[in-house]
């Protein structure tokens, strides 16, 4: 898809310096720009590349004044080049994903309710009594179980699985390989020492504006609901167990595992590979550094690191001693020898 400098300037409310009719069809880094590509300059350390780039269009701040002759790139001047480029990426992504219609070779139950302007990709299965909102995009090879509800403007990428009874809000993004509503890890030992499965009859509720990364799994509740609140952002390969609740606008990085029935507050930031045991309460605005292990309730505004996790400040102070431990032990041994020698 081609765009002219005039069209791009219109989207960004920018001013053109150069050829308004020059066209671009791809995006590039400024140092890797080629003819027909669009790039941007926001970081001053890349300024030298604007004089050599082959990109046809470069987005720059209005304050930018070239020191040398430009290499045939047309400038679009805006208030903030980085934000404008991000806006353009969002616009481009919307255009790219704006598919409409139902592909051949799909299986859609007659009892399903489909909204307007939706897209359903090939080899997708949509079960009984499913309700799909307006402008929803469901890409190929997706499974949507019975009685699922998907809100307006949500995107479900290829290979995602949404089990029965789950509810997905508006403006959500569910990436490839995500599994929503699989059984929670519920087993009870019997008299013979074997384990019997505890039926998991709850569901998963995902509120509006939630992003779920590729291969992330969110288990259905044993009873009631596993709940992901509005605005939560989940990275790839996260495990969220049954009956967990995650508060509004919390963000969680990859490979974190949260055990059953833990409640996480609002606006938390949780790093990668964090392990959180079950039945805990974690407050609002908590920050947990990567690879920490959480085994206790956490109050609002705490910052934690380590396994088991300590206060972030205490951990950093202790780390000074951790890394110098061999030297400290040697000094103690030397001191002990001196004391013993004087006796």
From TrEMBL:
What is the protein's given name? Answer: UDP-3-O-acylglucosamine N-acyltransferase
Q: How does it assemble?
A: Homotrimer.
What this chain does, per the record? Catalyzes the N-acylation of UDP-3-O-acylglucosamine using 3-hydroxyacyl-ACP as the acyl donor. Is involved in the biosynthesis of lipid A, a phosphorylated glycolipid that anchors the lipopolysaccharide to the outer membrane of the cell.
Which keywords does UniProt give here?
A: Acyltransferase, Lipid A biosynthesis, Lipid biosynthesis, Lipid metabolism, Repeat, Transferase
User: What is the scientific name of the source organism?
Assistant: Corallibacter vietnamensis
Similarity comment: Belongs to the transferase hexapeptide repeat family. LpxD subfamily.
Tell me which residues this entry annotates as catalytic. Answer: 242
- In what residue span(s) does the UDP-3-O-[3-hydroxymyristoyl] glucosamine N-acyltransferase non-repeat region domain sit? 21-90
Q: What SUPFAM superfamilies is this protein classified in? A: Trimeric LpxA-like enzymes
**Reaction catalyzed:** a UDP-3-O-[(3R)-3-hydroxyacyl]-alpha-D-glucosamine + a (3R)-hydroxyacyl-[ACP] = a UDP-2-N,3-O-bis[(3R)-3-hydroxyacyl]-alpha-D-glucosamine + holo-[ACP] + H(+)
Q: Which InterPro entries does the UniProt record give? A: Hexapep (IPR001451), LpxD (IPR007691), Trimer_LpxA-like_sf (IPR011004), UDP_GlcNAc_AcTrfase_non-rep (IPR020573)
Q: What is this enzyme's EC?
A: 2.3.1.191
Q: Which gene encodes it?
A: lpxD
């Amino acid at each position: 898809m081609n765009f002219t400098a005039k069209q791009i300037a219109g989207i960004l409310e920018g001013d053109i310096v150069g050829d308004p009719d020059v066209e671009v069809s791809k995006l590039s880094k400024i140092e890797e720009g080629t003819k027909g590509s669009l790039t941007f300059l926001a970081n001053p350390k890349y300024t030298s590349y604007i004089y050599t780039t082959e990109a046809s269009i470069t987005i720059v701040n209005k304050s930018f004044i070239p020191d040398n002759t430009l290499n045939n790139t047309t400038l679009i001047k805006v208030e903030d080049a980085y934000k404008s480029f991000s806006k353009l990426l969002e616009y481009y992504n919307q255009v790219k994903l704006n598919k409409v219609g139902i592909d051949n070779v799909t299986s859609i139950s007659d009892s399903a309710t489909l909204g307007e302007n939706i897209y359903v990709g090939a080899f997708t299965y949509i079960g009984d009594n499913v309700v799909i909102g307006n402008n929803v995009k469901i890409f190929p090879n997706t499974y949507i179980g019975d009685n699922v509800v998907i809100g307006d403007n949500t995107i479900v990428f290829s290979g995602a699985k949404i089990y029965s009874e789950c509810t997905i809000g508006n403006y959500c993004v569910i990436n490839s390989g995500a599994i929503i509503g699989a059984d929670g890890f519920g087993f009870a030992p019997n008299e013979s020492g074997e384990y019997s499965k505890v039926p998991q009859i709850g569901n998963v509720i995902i509120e509006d504006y939630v992003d779920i990364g590729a291969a992330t799994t969110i288990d259905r509740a044993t009873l009631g609901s596993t709940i992901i609140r509005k605005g939560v952002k989940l990275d790839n390969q996260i495990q969220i167990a049954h009956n967990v609740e995650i508060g509004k606008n919390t963000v969680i990085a990859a490979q974190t595992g949260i055990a059953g029935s833990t409640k996480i507050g609002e606006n938390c930031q949780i790093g990668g590979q964090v392990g959180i045991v079950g039945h805990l309460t974690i407050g609002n605005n908590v920050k947990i550094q990567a690879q920490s292990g959480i085994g206790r309730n956490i109050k609002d505004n705490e910052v934690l690191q380590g396994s088991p996790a300590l206060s972030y400040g205490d951990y950093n102070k202790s780390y000074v001693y951790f890394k110098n431990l061999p030297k400290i032990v040697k000094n103690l041994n030397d001191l002990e020898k001196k004391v013993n020698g004087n006796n």
